[in-house]
Amino acid sequence: MNKADRFAAPDQDPLEKKFLQGTLQEEAEFIIDYQDEIIDRYLQEREGTLRKSRGFKVQASGEGFRLDIHFVKYLRFIDIKGKSGVAKDQLILYNRVVYGRLNSIANKIQYGYTDDIKALLANYYGDLKIEL
Predict the structure, then answer these.
(1) Which comes out higher in pLDDT, residue 65 or 75?
(2) DSSP SS3 for 1
(3) 113 with 6: CB under 8 angstroms?
(4) How many contiguous H segments (helices) and E segments (strands) does the chain have?
(5) 115-128 confidence digits (pLDDT tens)
(6) Does 108 score more than 80 pLDDT?
(7) Overall pTM > 0.85
(8) Where are the domains of the chain?
(9) Residue 21 CB: number of other CB atoms within 10 A?
(10) Does residue 50 sit in helix, strand or coil?
């Protein structure tokens, strides 16, 4: 069984599920917070629309967990097109931040669930027979 199959197993360890859910939640919050900083700094005139249009949801599925991030379509292209008076490398809203975090997510899922993390989660959640 490869690593991906193990994380998708229906009889998955409850602590492992909490770890996966927490990892996706943490990474989604990072992306949203990072985008908020850029919007505050460079895109005040669009602030309301951009902020209201974004959100995320981590949900369990038959295959494990799924992270959905919602935003207006043009957000993806603001960092490509740029804005007058702002250098393109300062408008990092979608492509670089989202695809950059994918590597972080993959590394945390592949290497982050160690015995130390298992012990920490077991201590935090108490009984190993927790319900999600």
Answers:
(1) 65
(2) coil
(3) no
(4) 6, 2
(5) 878 888 778 777 55
(6) yes
(7) no
(8) 3-125
(9) 17
(10) helix
